[in-house]
Amino acid sequence: MTITITAFERSPDGGKGLARDTRVRWALEEVGQPYQVRLVSFRAMKEPAHLALHPFGQIPTYEEGNLALFETGSIVFHIAERHAGLLPDDANARARAITWMFAALNTVEPPILEFVNAKLFERDKPWHAERLPLVEERVRGRLNPLSVRLGDADWLDGGFSAGDLMMVSVLLRLRSSGILDEYRNLAAYVARGEARPAYKRAFDAQLAVNTGKPSTG
Ligand code: GTB
């Protein structure tokens, strides 16, 4: 069955791979599922046709036959459940990998988003200089224990899983801030994720959309 996802017609990051369609592309590449992409403008995202797929008028969405999904957590979980390669067979290891997906989305991503949004949208506020260090500390409050838990391991729990895919995707948002580099093992962990051939194909595909150049992968 054909899989169709949606992505920004033109991502505000110009193709740095930070928009959330990249994590869905990555999951599909990891499991070897071909997919099509429908590009949407910011205006089209708020129109009825797209709102029927995504009640909050965002990307990405995922369509497969008569199934339509939104939320990258749900989409990546759906892909991982139906195709081999992203979740271990052992029931307990599988449950732990899913736990890491939730940890990425519910525990690590929120302070990172708060930090990114503070830097992007609050620069002109009189309280910005006072607030930013507080927000940064909340990010470190998640990275410290994550770094301790990862230690010298390659991945969070045994082999690469959907939990790592989600955690790396979430941490990537920090790259330009320099905070990630304070944690040698987390920076290496993210680099390991980005070095995976499936990630590279996903990245190149979204870059091609944003630069108008055909994907080489
Ligand atoms: N919780 C949802 C999920 O995980 O699917 C969040 C989806 C979401 O935030 N979508 C964003 C969107 O559609 C795009 S990814 N925004 C438009 C809107 O809300 O109107 C977030 C994003 C956007 C841009 C960059 N960037 O340019 O660097 C990075 C990430």
List the SSEs and their pairings.
Blueprint: E1 3-8, H1 21-31, E2 36-40, H2 42-45, H3 48-51, E3 61-64, E4 67-70, H4 72-82, H5 91-121, H6 128-150, H7 162-172, H8 184-194, H9 197-211
Parallel strand pairs: 1-2
Antiparallel strand pairs: 1-3, 3-4
The structure holds S-(P-nitrobenzyl)glutathione (GTB).
Describe the structure.
This protein is α+β, with helices and mostly antiparallel strands and 217 residues long. It folds into 2 domains: 3-85 and 198-211, Glutaredoxin; 91-196, Glutathione S-transferase Yfyf (Class Pi), Chain A, domain 2 (Up-down Bundle), CATH 1.20.1050.10. The protein has 9 helices and 4 strands; from the N terminus they run βαβααββαααααα. Strands 2-1-3-4 form a 4-stranded mixed β-sheet. A hairpin with a 2-residue loop joins strand 3 and strand 4 (67-70). Helix 5 (91-121) runs antiparallel to helix 6 (128-150) and helix 5 (91-121) runs parallel beside helix 7 (162-172). It starts with a strand and ends in a 6-residue tail after the last helix. S-(P-nitrobenzyl)glutathione is lined by residues 11-13, 18-20, 45, 57-59, 71-72.
Total discrete domains: 2
CATH structural class of the largest domain: Mainly Alpha
Strand content: 5-15%
Radius of gyration: 17 Å
Q: What would the principal axes of the Cα set say about the shape?
A: globular
